[in-house]
Amino acid sequence: MPGVFLLPNPERVQDACTEFDGKYQVLEGALEVLFNHFPQNTDPRHVLLKVVTLNRLYAAGVLAVEALASHISEVGGEIDSALANGEPSIIDRIAQVDIQGKKLKFFSFATKYCNRHQPCSYPVYDSRVDRYLWSLQRHRKFSDDFERRSVLCKDGETFFKIMLDFRKFYDLEAFSFKQIDKFLWLRGESPVDPLAQKIHVA
Questions:
Q1: Domain that holds residue 132
Q2: Measured between alpha carbons, how far is 56 from 180 in angstroms, rounded to an integer?
Q3: Average of pLDDT values for 61-68?
Q4: In sequence order, what are the residues at sequence separation of 6 or more whose Cβ sits closer than 8 angstroms to the Cβ of residue 183?
Q5: Neighbouring-strand partners of residue 102
Q6: Alpha-carbon distance 138 to 142, whole Å?
Q7: N or C terminus of the chain with fewer C-beta within 10 Å?
Q8: What does the DSSP assignment read for 33-92?
Q9: CA-based torsion, 147, 117, 61, 5: positive or negative
Q10: From the CB of residue 2, how many other CB atoms can be counted at a distance below 10 Å?
Q11: How far is CA 47 from CA 78, 96, 133, 184, in A?
Q12: What is the H or E stretch that residue 116 is in?
């Protein structure tokens, strides 16, 4: 149907997972091998390998990879404990870095880093997710915490709450965050179907 805005539903998420797995099997498999081989974050060498590889393959746009890796390994024990418990606040701990007196925030990368360690527990934030979820929120409000686009990446706990609201509102609670991420990555590329002119709910 021309001009259709595709709303989430279980069937579309499942179809997206199948499509994603077919397209990105090797890339996802390589990252899985790396992160499974080096699951901890206290050894600077291992952390640097993970940061460089993830940044490159996911096009996360982090230029200060060595500084970020050093920051992560310095608080690696704290990160490992938080990841094991699925604590959303650790996203901000990873994201906020002081580099030469400047406070930088690598929020998108931090969500990806957490997701690679605990794929089912941490949702991923990037521009596609932002664009798609904001389109949904404007169409029909699904989260009271999502008032403006900028709120989406304000902090890890707010983002986590918005994603939980999204999953519940669209009856996607049977899916892990990893599965939902696959759907958002594919469908968030163009939140409104270029052939569509109106909302199609079915």
A1: 3-200
A2: 22
A3: 94
A4: 8, 12, 13, 16, 17, 20
A5: 99
A6: 9
A7: C
A8: HHHHHS--S--HHHHHHHHHHHHHHTT---S-HHHHHHHHHHTHHHHHHHHHHT-TTHHH
A9: negative
A10: 10
A11: 14, 16, 31, 27
A12: helix 107-117
What are the phi and psi torsion angles at 99 (to 5°)?
A: -125, 110
Tokens at 51, concatenated: 């940061």
Place 155 in a pLDDT band, splitting at 50, 70 and 90. Answer: confident
* Count of domains for the chain: 1
In 10 A of CB 198, how many CB atoms? Answer: 10
Percent helix / strand / coil, the chain, rounded to 5 = 60, 10, 30
Residue 202: pLDDT band with limits 50, 70, 90: very low
Cβ–Cβ under 8 Å, residues 82 and 114: no
Angle, vertex CA 82, rays to CA 77 and CA 87, nearest 5: 165
Rounded Cα gap, residues 181 and 108, in angstroms: 13
**Does the pLDDT of residue 192 top 60, yes or no?**
no
